Structures are given as structure tokens and as C-alpha cells.
Structure prediction request, 695 residues.
Amino acid sequence: MATVTFEQATRIYPRADRPAVDTLDLAIGDGELLVLVGPSGCGKSTSLRMLAGLEEVDAGSIRIGDRDVTDSPPKDRDIAMVFQNYALYPHMTVAENMGFALRIAGVGKADIGRRVAEAARILDLEPYLARRPKALSGGQRQRVAMGRAIVRQPQVFLMDEPLSNLDAKLRVQTRTQIAALQRRLVVTTVYVTHDQVEAMTMGDRVAVLKDGVLQQCDAPGTLYDRPANTFVAGFIGSPAMNVVTGPGVDGGVRLGGAVLPVPRERLARASAGSGRITVGFRPEAVDLRAGDGVPVVVDVVEQLGSDACLYATLGAADDGDVLHTADLVVRTEPRSAPAVGEPVTLRVREDHLHVFDPVTQLRVD
Amino acid sequence: MTIASDDPRVAAVTAPPPDAPPAAPAAAPRRRRARLTRNRWGYAYVAPFFLLFGAFSLYPFLYTAYISLHEVRLSDIDGAEFVGFGNYTALLQNEFFWNAARNTLTIGILSTVPQLCIALGLAHLLNYRLRGRTFFRVAMLMPYATSIAAATLVFGQLFGHDYGLINALLQGLGLDRVDWEAGTLSSQVAISVIVTWRWTGYNALIYLAAMQAIPNDLYEAATLDGASRWKQFIHVTVPALKPTILFTIVVSTIGAVQLFGEPLLFSGNGMTNGGASNQYQTLGLLMYDQGWTNFRLGQAAATAWAMFLIILVVVGACALIARRRARAER
Prediction:
């Protein structure tokens, strides 16, 4: 049982021009499941490996509980890690794999057997204890890797994309199991993934990283409702939030000839620097209507059954002054979805509008 | 696919077109001929190898077997006289054969075991991120690229009695000089040193290649499991190298049974008797001695075949052990 604290932790790879992890400050509570998420190359795995002791810390410090582990070797950190490729020892049986750390630590045979059997029972691995990893399916291997971590009864679990080698269906199943197991064992866990759905569903809190810099660390709901900047806004949520930049005018932002209303005070602050304003709205926060609103043309309609996704571009009178990187996405009722090519107008529910400063990209409240 | 494949699936695939006569007995040779013509380019491409193999490997091999059943003098090769297994029974009753076999065995053990152990250790060290890794890797292959003659002559000097560097060092340490060439054990140790020096780097490179195929996250997992470098070597590296180690054991054993150049040149005078009391005469030297010193080709051929059979037995035993282990691990 322990907390984990990153304090200004920095990792610069030799011959790299910028840090892989840049002055990371992160406090992880006792028994918490914290997910590190971000696109590839964002430094999430490096952060985890710094905590594991597999990667040097060039500046700052890392503490587990009250102990400063910045320079201690991995074996003294009382941690266990689940690797992306599981890293099971191929010549050892499942039981030997799970008991290896205990054997190295000099724990008695009977004790090892008892703890391995206990972990095997939790993970439904009992029939496979005498098998070698190559005789197991992907999901079973993944559970052995989990078991190897559990048997050690460490202070902290580290998981490096443990589900990325499973097929989609098994991934969803296993992610629930891991989250449930973590809640049952109440062990502080740091979990790395690039999949924001995994992050949102599993984490007590989620830390979003980009280019080695921590963008935001919050509960999944907060992350979704109040993203700290445009990157988090676009990264969290599927389909992604629509983020559009346009000229600020009296009462709102001008998009496609119409004005999308923005509350006066936020409008003033966001557009103070450049006269422009960035707004974001989630696909489900949109009402489609004929009449007034932002005119768009529907390009593609995706029927998902439970709802439909419209991919649309801004309608006729685009001033050439509007920036949006992707199509606008609107989630709507599947039965009443407009047809492709049909011009519609959209209105954003006011309390679901996110406002960002177009220069700093930061949220304006 | 082999020419004589009787596999029914193959037959089905290569079945003649429907307009071929249905007569069953005549169909088989016709089908075979059809198969030969269809695959003629394949056979053409592999032919050069098999021609060379036949002329320079298979024919000498079989001819040696033929010779070994005859009494043949080097001066009168055509005057072969059939003696059945006489050469073989003579060989088994020959004290020189047993002496040479014993020498070959001890030199083999004295050279193969340290050679492979050192190679494994060296490969492990070279597997780390060393500065100038490439240099070390090339340097390791240098002994292998050196001619046996040059190496053995240099080592012969080093092991010399009066002016040899090694005896000078021994004396410097206050120890007695050793007459390396004269003693049984000492001469065999000296020859083993030469063999080890020549082949260690070669084996180390083979081990190194196999080590680099071991995924790095296994070592990371072992580190987190608290295993020291040594334990990682024992529990991760060595198990992963098992097939490679078996391979090098087989290759080194074959080399050891055929050992010839080093003991021949170690004497310094080109004699094939392997020292005054045959103390380092190997099977290879004995064979040469019989054929080209005593001109008894039939006897030499029998010795050659005996060496071949020894290799077959050793390699077969290795394969058997490997298969049993693999089955046990399944």
C-alpha cells in the first residue's frame, strides 16, 4: 500500500532534442488506479518505466510512499509490472513463471505454492499451472502476466498496455476484469494505454500526456466535461469533440455565415488577444433543426443502430476564416437522421459549449 | 518433393489429364515420367550441387568404404586384395588405435568444454552495450580466420621448453619449467589451448547471434523480479540458448574427432606419430600415419570409417537427448 509521487521528473534520451518526459508532477493516491494516456510518443510508457526503474530519471524525483526511489534499482522498489508482450519466461511453466520472483527472493517452496495457487484461483488459471506459455491462448498468457504481478503482493502494480495484444472482444472483457481485480486487491496501480476508451472506463483518474508534458489529470467525468485545453478536448471522447476556430463577433463566433452564440464574458476573454475564438462541442450536444443556426452539409451518415453519426462540413457562406481540422461530427437519432447532401442547421446546447483561447489553446470559463 | 514420393496427395495433384489412358498398371511409370518433365527446371537448378557432391563427397566416401574392405598398398593401388572386415578387426586389436582414441577423447574434452564455456561468457559480455562492440566482435573472429599452421607454429614457440614465453613466465613466478611437448597431459593441454584459442570466438559469435534474438522485455521482467545479472543469465539466457548450445556441441565434437592440423604441427618436425611415445597422436594423425607413412591404405580407410562412425554415434546421442528433453518440456 503506497502512494506514488512524481516530482518534476524528467527524462531526456541521449541525443534527443527534447525531453521524452518533461517535468512531470503527478501524485497518485493509495489504492488508486491511475491511467496514463496519450498518443504514441507522448512519454506515457517512459514515465511508467521511470517508475519501474527501467529508465533513468535525469531530473526531479520519484517517491513510492515516503521512500525516494529515484536512484534505487528496480528490485528494491517493491513493484510488479505487466508488459505489453507479457514477457513470460518461455521455458518455465505457468506456476514457475508466477513463482519466479518469490523463488529469487528465497521464499520457501510451500509458501510459493500457496501464493501461486491463490493467484491462479483468482485468475481462473488453475487448469493451466503445469503448461508452458506457448501452449496458452493470448488471453490466458495475459492472465499469467497478471498472476505473476499479483503473487508478488507488491506496493504498486505497473501495467504497460496490457490489453493491446488481445482481440477487441476479449479486450473489453479483460479490461472490466482488471478494473474489478484492482478494486478488490486495492493496490495502487499505474496503467498505461493509448486507448482513451480504456482510460475512461478503467481509471479512477486519468492523466493525459502529450509530447512528454502532462496536459490534465482528473477523474474521467471531469476530463470529459471540462477538458483543460483543445488537445484533451479532442483526445478524450469518441467520436472526438468538434473544435472550430472562427472570428469573434458580437454575441458569438461566426461560422458559415451564421453566429454561434457564446456567453459574453467568455467571448471577451477568449478573443481578447487575436479577435478570434475557438469553440468546442461534443457530437451529442448538438440539436439539428431547420431554420436559424450554423448551416452545414451532411457528407456521410454512419448508422450505428443505437444512434447515427453525421459527418458534415460547414455550409455555403464559409468566410474562409474558419479553421476546423476534421469534419464536424453530430450524433443523432438513427430514425430521424438527415440524408446525405441535405443542408441542415445545427445549434449547440449552451451549457455544453466549450470555449478555448485560440492562442494558448487553454480552456476559458 | 522427392522424386520417389508415394504420397497419395502428391499423386492426386500430379495426376495426368483426363484424356490419358486409364490403364492402371501402365499409369505409374508414365506419371513419374510426367512429374520428372514437369519439374525439370527444378532438378536442373539443384543439379550442379549434386554433381559436385557426388564427385567430391559421395564417391570418395563410398570408395573409402570399398578400400577399407581391401588390403591396398599406396605403391600398388590397383592390386587390391579383398579382406572383408579384416582391417576393422585389426584396428580394434591395435594398441595404437586405442591410444589415439583415448588421446582424441581427452583432447576433445579439454578443448570443447572450456571453449564453449568461455564462448558463452564472452557472448554474454558482448551482448551488453559496450563501447567499440563491433571491434570486439571482429577481433573475436580473428583466430578463426588465422591459418592453423601459423597459429600452431606460434603456439609451438610459446610452449617451447627452453625459450618459450610460457615457461619463462612460469619461471618468473618461481615455478618449474614444463616440458610441454614431452608429457602426455601437458602436450594435450597445450594442443587444447590452441584449439580453444582458435574456436572460442567463432562459437561466441554464434551464441551472440542467438542471444540477440531473446526479447529484451524478458530481461526487464527478470530485473523487476529481482534477478541479478547472473540469475538472469542462468534463468533467461541459457534456457533460450539450449538449441544453439546443442548445435555448437555437435559441431565442436565433429571437429574434435577430426582433429589433425594442430597435433601434426605441434611437434614442430612434421612427424605424424604424435610425439615420441604417441602421447598426442589423434585418430586423424593415426590415419595419416597408416596411409602415408606405412602406405597401408586399406587400414587408413578403415580408420577413417571408424572416425565417421564415432561421429555418427555422438551426434545421434545428442539428437536423442535433445528430442527427449523437448518431449519432456511439452
